[in-house]
């Protein structure tokens, strides 16, 4: 009798073996090591850009601050400009995350929602002045494309403010006001006040700076409460 042995395919549940071309060093894959080096370069750049400024910093200085050799710089970035964009993006994400977290705990009142957002921004540049120099000074001095990063950040906050205003005040209460322009202008004012505060060495107490930032909002809400005629000229 002829016996035929039939092999039944079975699902392989074992974990796939790492590619032989991906050698681990200290248990870390090459991709992870590259990610770690990239993070070190960003941290080194925050130190150099935030203390010397973008235009006065070199690739070598960033690599020294990152404790890496220069050959690793071009593994992650094509230029110092590209590195700056990565630095700015990281700071922007951190600032927005802090802002949104503060809003979750804020009182549901007009000024109650604004005060913590303004304070978070001021704290962000005061607790680490490197952040302020990078976001408020260097970002505007490299070129138009990089400056657009700053404009986009301001627009993100202006959009949050516009949503806040739309919830607070029906459109028919302020028919002659463009909320987009109003939100952009108010955020621009906050940024300029923060930059002035930073240039003065944060000498003014932060509570006073927060109150100064809030004053135009208080006046605006008072006008809104008076109805459409309160916003019209004589």
Automatic annotation (TrEMBL):
DNA-binding region: 58-77
UniProt key word Transport: no
Organism superkingdom: Bacteria
Organism: Aquabacterium lacunae
Domain HTH tetR-type: 35-95
Keywords, comma-separated and alphabetical: DNA-binding
Cross-referenced Pfam families: TetR_N
InterPro entries (UniProt xref): Homeodomain-like_sf, HTH-type_Tx_Regulator, HTH_TetR, Tet_transcr_reg_TetR-rel_C_sf
Protein name: TetR/AcrR family transcriptional regulator
GO molecular function terms attached to this record: DNA binding
